[in-house]
Amino acid sequence: LSAYYFFYFAFVGAFSPYFTLYLQALDFSATEIAVLMSLMQVMRIAAPVVWGWLSDRSGRRVAIIRLSGLASLAGFAVFFFTTRFEGIFIAMALMAFFWSAALPLFEGLTFNHLGDRASAYGRVRSWGSVGFVVAVLAIGYLLDRLPIDTLLWMTALVLSGIVVCAFFLP
To answer: DSSP letters of 51-97?
Structure first.
C-alpha cells in the first residue's frame, strides 16, 4: 500500500510541475497549455463518479485499480507519438480519465485493508508525500542536465511503478 502511494504521488510530482515545460518546448501557447493541464482537474470531477459506480456495481475494486493503471500508462504512451495539440489533448484526456479513477478506489481499499488499524493510515499515506518530494527534486535535478523530452521517459517510468504496485495489492 505504501509503495502504491509513493508512486501515485511521485507521478504527481513528476507530471504537475514539469509537464508544462514540455508543452512549452513544443511551442504551445499559454492558452493551449492551460486547456491541456485543466483536463486533469476536469477528469477529477467526472471520472471518480464513473469509476466509483462501476466499482460498487461490480465489486471489483482492485481489478479497476489495475485497469486504471494500465490504461493511464497506455494513454500516457500516446505522448511519445504526437506533438500536435489534438493528439496531446486526446492523450491527456485518456490518461487523466483513467488515472483519476485510482486514488478514490485505492483510499477505500487502504481503509478496508487496515480495518481496526485505521490509525496506521498516516504512516502508510506519508509515503505518498515522500514520493512527491523525491520525484520533484530528482526530476528537477535531472532536467537541469538532460533535454526536456526525457521527461516523458521519467514520468512513464514512475507511472509504470503504479502499474507494478497495482498488481501486488492485497
So the answer is: HHHHHHHH--HHHHHHHHHHHHHHHHHGGGT--SHHHHHHHHHHHHH
